[in-house]
Amino acid sequence: MKLPAVAGVLTLSLALGGTGAVAGGHDRVTTPTLTGWASLPAGTFVPGSEPSGAKITGNTNGYAVPFADQPIQGFSGIVKNRDGSFDVLSDNGYGNQANSGDFLLRIQRLTPAFATNTVDVVGGINLTDPSGKVPWALTRPDRVLTGADFDVESIVRAADGTYWIGDEFGPYLLNFDRAGRLLAAPIALDGVIAPETAARTGVPATTNSSKGFEGLAASPDGRYLYGLLEGTVNGDVAGRLRLNEFDLRTQKYTGKRFIYQLESPANAIGDAIAIDDNRFLVIERDGGQGATAVVKRIYLADKRDRNHDGVLDKTLVVDLMNIANPRHLGGFGDQFTFPFQTIEDVVVLDDNKIAVLNDNNFPFSTGRSATAADNNEWITIELPKSYRVLASR
């Protein structure tokens, strides 16, 4: 039986190969161009939620801890809804297990308002395990999941409304219903063990901390998931990341594995989404922010490996440090840069437009100002015809 298509995943002809006019009716751009900018202020919280951040230490950039409520920050995955809103995944919290036990894992529902450069928070759900699918002890007896339980970094929504989420502490695949309730036990990846799992099980780690499923993509027919690790597995060539195929019909990995080659072993990926059966948009970034930010890019990665070098073919789509901004959106100049340490969300909007969001690691990241916590910025980028022609070859 053919599975239904996954919501939010478009074929290549729609994602990068259309011929529609640029929004607003002006001529098509000749270089990646900023067409929208919106910002959610740092320190935006879920009203009437729970205190958070009691175990944070270090420089909090002016925010007193603990916070009275849960922050709506740390965006690490995005799904487009039909009504113009987006489901955005907040990641594990404050950077590690030890300080994130009071950060509730949550899918936020947001709507950007580019006319006013703002982002509206319109809802959200907490992630929970009421049926006891996780076989080990959780942080909370009520089985509301926290950043000490999982580091959720990537998300796909199936046509039936359930969510598949990639975790970095396992790394695991997690399947939640539309209300955020875990539907099955976490699914491990053979041969890849994060230090957090090693500490719990005694099995030696095979990768570094927080280097699990940073990217999670779905094939257009809804049959397969593709989980892209953020870090290299021990024994693999430095800078080579495994992309693993998972069959939703059998609920098992198929054994097919592809390799994404980083431009430098010091880089990391921030997100990966499918645009057709063979190609993905992948965010690749260095660890710099502000003045030290250099590599913040989106590549088109093709698993067909046409040059037979054993890795995904890569084509640069957008240099996020060099985006044309002729309208001076956001109050920035002719050249717009996205100088954030972590950029972890890309989503296709229409035939030649994508949106990109940063993860602001609230309250720690300081990409815009060395003395102020970063906001969550939400940008849209128009792609030139040359990229669409290249992608359709």
From TrEMBL:
Residues 1-23 form the signal peptide. Pfam families: Phytase-like. Keywords: Signal. Coiled coil: none annotated. InterPro entries: Phytase-like_dom. The keyword Cytoplasm does not apply. It comes from the Bacteria. Residues 70-362 form the Phytase-like domain. This is Glycerophosphoryl diester phosphodiesterase. The lineage of its organism: Bacteria, Bacillati, Actinomycetota, Actinomycetes, Micromonosporales.
